[in-house]
Amino acid sequence: MADGKTTASARRPSGQRRADAQRSIDRILDAGLRLYTSRPGVSVAEVAAAAGVGRVTLYGHFPSRTELAKALLERAFAETEAAWREVDTSGPADEALERVLREQWHLMERNRNLRDNIIGDVSPQWLRARHDPILKRIEDLITRGRDDGAFRTDLPLSWLITALYSLVHAASDEISAGRLTTGQAPDVLVASLRSLYRP
């Protein structure tokens, strides 16, 4: 350096710097997920302030709003996938699918504002692709139900999965528009899919 001195950060061992950086990232993601799921229209500056870091620090870890949005979605989906594993999917496939939708609705509802905040930052294709691990589990349930005669087989499997994906987001949009309540949504969603999937 020009003055022959090093910064406090540079004097710390590299392992300590990495640990400090990871703590900063964790604070940003914790604050971002908390804010993004609470209401629409959250700014990057608000996330930085809630995390207790400057915008320069935030952008040092996440160079764009898109990168931040993707990181927040990754964390939200990791939590959703972990919660899925706790749901009992044994027994008849139609009952298991309804159980999944009802027990996971609180996470779908939590992610409604998250989706509103990031919808302009990531492409619909990226968002759909990131759902693939969860949708694969849905596919397994639907396939089992088709084999057992609980679900229709005259429509493509991919269409049945897309219909579920679309209806979940439609329910979220209806809640945001005030045409559906969070209490009504699980019943409406289950009834709609029951009708659609019935042989």
Walk me through what this model shows:
This protein has 199 residues and is mainly α. The protein contains ten helices and no strands. Helix 2 packs across helix 3. The N and C termini lie far apart (73 Å).
The CATH architecture category of the largest domain equals Orthogonal Bundle
Q: What global shape is seen?
A: elongated
Element string (H = helix, E = strand): HHHHHHHHHH
**Derived structural class:** mainly alpha
Structural domains: how many: 2
Main attributes?
199 residues, mainly alpha, Tetracycline Repressor, domain 2, 10 helices, disordered N terminus
Short description:
The chain is mainly α and 199 residues long. It has 10 helices and no strands.
Question: Topology of this structure?
Answer:
Layout: H1 8-11, H2 14-36, H3 44-51, H4 55-61, H5 65-84, H6 93-118, H7 124-130, H8 132-148, H9 157-176, H10 185-197
Helix pairs in contact: 2-3, 5-6, 6-8, 6-10, 8-9, 9-10
